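Support request, priority: normal
Reporter: lab tech (M.K.)
Component: structure prediction queue

Hi team, I submitted a job for AraC family transcriptional regulator from Erysipelothrix larvae yesterday, and the status page still shows it as pending. I've pasted the exact input below so you can check whether something in the sequence is tripping the parser. The sequence length should be 322 residues. Please let me know if I need to resubmit or if it's stuck on your end.
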Amino acid sequence: MYEWHKNIQVIVDEIDRCIKHQNDEALTLEHLAQKLSYSEFYISRKFKEISGMQFRDYLRYRRLAFALKQVRDTQSSFLEIGLNHGFSSHEAFTRAFKETYGMSPREYRQNPTPVHLQSIIRPFDCYLLEAGGTGMLGSVEDIKTYFVRIPAHKFLHIKNYESRGYWDFWQKQSLIPGQDCETICGILDSIKGKLDDNGGSEMNSGSGQIMAYINEPTGRICSWGIPLSECYGVRLPIDYDGEIPPQMHMVVVPEAEYIVFEHGPFDFETENSSVEQLIEEAMKTFDYSATGYCLDTSPNRIFYFYHDCLRFWKYIRPVRKV
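Reply from support: The job had stalled in the queue. We restarted it manually and it finished. Here are the results:
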């Protein structure tokens, strides 16, 4: 099953790539089955088994998700957007858009509120699968450490006071209506202007979505000896005034100084655990005494966590001068 989670992720990534490049000829089950050297029937059955939906339904939702962002971010005609995303007419696109999002493209463009894109599936997420090999363990010198000053911004998020890590966080959130991973990621993906959004569709920083920890008295005491609530959300500009989804929280994060512990790109299948160990060791052994700073454990300070194997793994921890 592990191998098939990986295979379905290949299909999911290929669908996104083809939609971005408007390569409709490759957006067929036949093409994707050939890519993996399996029959269309077998691919279709495994896709439904792992993703929970038919291949054709996922493809339709994914086309609509890309189309929604074009409606939101451009002034292109709805006919042009519809045709670019596989719909035969203005009417067919409008009907599908309204059935999925509860409003017409015109209504959404006039008032682009957060919506559930209903298309984010991550069949090969190493954390949700509790996977990620140890690989070759490097040294703490592989971790880049530096100080930054982050301007004031807002943080839109959900939180859990009892979870212990990413996998456990989503397991607990899945028990709360409307706060499961697929729903939350779909809503966050629809929000424009995320500070960490690089245009990708990946969870954990590719589309601007990150984990964080807020120092709160009601939080769980972590290994650092600090009461933290675990959060998942997006950083937004300080002047963001969009709608706040009812299951989420918004906090204002003042301008402040932080220390960053960063590892470069890595293969999460073979190196995930070893990179995690290296960063944990670097944070544990870092000597603040020579820097003029110390870790800031004041209430309401935020610790950010970015995990994107194609770019970096980094912790951003609040500091203050001593």
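The beta strands are 144-150, 153-160, 209-221, 227-237, 249-253, 256-263, 293-295, 302-308, 312-321. The longest strand covers residues 209-221. Let us know if anything else looks off. Ticket resolved.
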